[in-house]
Design goal:
Number of helices: 5
Distance between the termini: 94 Å
Order of helices and strands: HHHHH
Largest sheet: none
Structural class: mainly alpha
Strand content: under 5%
Shape: rod-shaped
Number of strands: 0
Number of domains: 2
């Protein structure tokens, strides 16, 4: 309340002294005001969604999202790196399985031998001796 009263008194004092200013000074003050207004930064237009009051509005200003843009790009780069890593490991795993399958199929044993339970027991016993 004190600020409003103070602003009212300042305005009255300025208006009271307005008649005492010579016309040349008045023109110079007006030119200075126009110059200051032309140099004033223009506010950037913002897109705002209508909502219930100020809490419901969402701003789409590009200046306010610039810091977040770097974070989003960093997260996207991290996710892309993770995807490439998982893809690379899956390709290597499939390649290893292909080599094992090729070696088994190129062996002299028939495929039915691998299904024999006695052969599997022999493999287990054979690997335990090493």
């Amino acid at each position: 309340m004190k600020e409003e009263r103070y602003a009212h008194r300042v305005r009255q004092a300025l208006n009271h002294g307005l008649d005492d200013i010579p016309p040349t000074a008045s023109r110079r003050l007006e030119a200075a005001r126009h110059l200051a207004l032309s140099r004033q930064k223009l506010a950037k237009p913002e897109m705002v969604l209508a909502g219930a009051g100020s809490a419901g509005s969402v701003s789409f200003s590009t200046a306010s999202h610039t810091p977040h843009l770097k974070q989003v790009l960093a997260i996207l780069a991290l996710l892309l790196g993770m995807w490439i890593s998982f893809y690379w490991h899956s390709v290597q795993y499939v390649s290893a399985l292909e080599e094992i399958d090729s070696a088994l199929l190129a062996d002299d044993l028939p495929p039915e031998a691998f299904m024999d339970n006695d052969f599997l027991e022999w493999l287990k016993d054979d690997t335990s001796e090493e």
